[in-house]
């Protein structure tokens, strides 16, 4: 039984969280983001590999280009989720950004992902005038797919053997949301 199946067999999810603050990530968050990225459930749903170091995350946060956005979900000083909105580097794709996100294993299914996605899409729509936001999601990540569809993303295709995870190749959907 894989991690995704184990999570489906757990008891019903708890109520939505109150008090979550979405804010910009900073280099001071490096240790907390590292701990988040190294959680097995978080990592299972992303392209991250095990054993990220705080130094790697700090370097990334310090060197991130100013045109992208990196946000965290903060609950009483604990980072419980993060999202990156990365603008396309090609001048002919300036209307486009890519999103990557994840939520702490213990807080999944409680509205954290929705809050992060809403904040990122607000920046995309109302501050950066982006017309297209893209993402990839593993085809077995039903909770994430549902969240993305609720936020207006549609599946544009299936990427066969997209990534190697948990000892085997897995497929992913490519999804996008167009602001028309």
Automatic annotation (TrEMBL):
GO molecular function, one term: acyltransferase activity
Record PROSITE patterns: GNAT
Leader peptide range in chain numbering: none
Chain ranges of the N-acetyltransferase domain: 20-180
Top-level taxon in the UniProt lineage: Bacteria
E.C. number: 2.3.1.-
Keywords per UniProt: Acyltransferase, Transferase
InterPro entries referenced in this protein's UniProt entry, alphabetically: Acyl_CoA_acyltransferase, GNAT_dom
Protein name: Acetyltransferase
Record organism: Neorhizobium huautlense
Lineage: Bacteria, Pseudomonadati, Pseudomonadota, Alphaproteobacteria, Hyphomicrobiales
């Amino acid at each position: 039984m894989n991690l995704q199946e184990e999570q489906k067999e757990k008891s019903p999810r708890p109520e939505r969280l109150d008090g979550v603050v979405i804010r910009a990530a900073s280099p001071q968050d490096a240790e907390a983001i590292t701990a988040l990225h190294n959680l097995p459930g978080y990592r299972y749903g992303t392209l991250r590999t095990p054993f990220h170091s705080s130094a790697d995350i700090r370097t990334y946060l310090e060197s991130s280009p100013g045109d992208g956005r990196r946000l965290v979900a903060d609950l009483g000083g604990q980072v419980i989720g993060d999202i990156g909105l990365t603008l396309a580097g090609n001048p002919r794709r300036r209307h486009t950004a890519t999103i990557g996100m994840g939520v702490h294993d213990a807080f999944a299914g409680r509205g954290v992902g929705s809050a992060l996605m809403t904040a990122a899409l607000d920046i995309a729509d109302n501050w950066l005038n982006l017309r297209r936001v893209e993402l990839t999601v593993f085809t077995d990540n039903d909770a994430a797919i549902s969240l993305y569809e609720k936020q207006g993303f549609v599946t544009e295709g299936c990427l066969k053997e997209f990534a190697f995870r948990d000892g085997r190749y897995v497929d992913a959907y490519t999804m996008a949301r167009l602001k028309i």
